[in-house]
Amino acid sequence: MPSLEIVSKDEQRISVKMTGVPLQYANALRRICLNGVPVFAVDTVDVIENTSVLPDEGLAHRLGLVPLRTDLERFTETSKCTCGGEGCSNCRVMLVLDSGESEETRTVLSDEISSEDDSVRPTSGGIAIVELAPGQRIKVECYARLGRGTEHAKWNASNVSILTETGNKGEHLLTVESTGALAPEKVVMAGAEEVSGRLGQFKEITSGI
User: Fold this and answer.
1) Average pLDDT of the chain?
2) From CA 209, how far away is CA 37, in angstroms rounded?
3) What is 39-148's CATH number?
4) Is the pTM of this model over 0.85?
C-alpha cells in the first residue's frame, strides 16, 4: 500500500519519504512540485512614472520575480475563472509601488509594495527592486495572477525539488524547498492533487480509444 511519511519540515523545506510509489509517479510529483503548482506572480505592469536609471522593461522584470504569498483556496486561475479570463477579484490582484521622490540615494525594497488583498503580498520585505538617486521616483501599478512554472520561471512554486533513493527498495525521498509563496507541505499536497487529476484525465482520454 503506497504511503507518505514526513521525515523533516520547517517553514521553507520539507522532506517526504514515499513507500510503494512507482518511480515514474514519484518523479512526476517532483516535477510538478517544481513548476506545476499554481502560485501568484506579477504578470502585467503599468509604469506611471519611472525616472530611475532602470528601464521600464527592467523594472517590470524585477517586479515579476518577487515571490508573492498565495492562497489557493481564495483564488482561481484566470483560465478557469467565471470572468472568462478578463480578470476579476477572484483571479487577479492589483499591487502598487510608489516610492515618492527620493531625497537621498536609497534602495527601494519589496516592503514598499502595497496589495489590494493582504493574502497576496511579497514573501519578504527585503527584496531590492531598484536604487534611486536624489530626485528620482518610481510609481507603478501591477496585476498579479496565478500561473505555473511551465509558463515562466517566476511562477515556480519551489526553488528546489529533489528525488533521492533511501537505500530501501521501493522507497524514495522527496525534498522540496518552497519559494515562500506556499508552505512547503502545501506545495507537496497541491502537487499530489495535480498528479491525481492529470492521471484521471489521462484515463478518461484513453478509455475511449
Assistant:
1) 94
2) 29
3) 2.170.120.12
4) yes
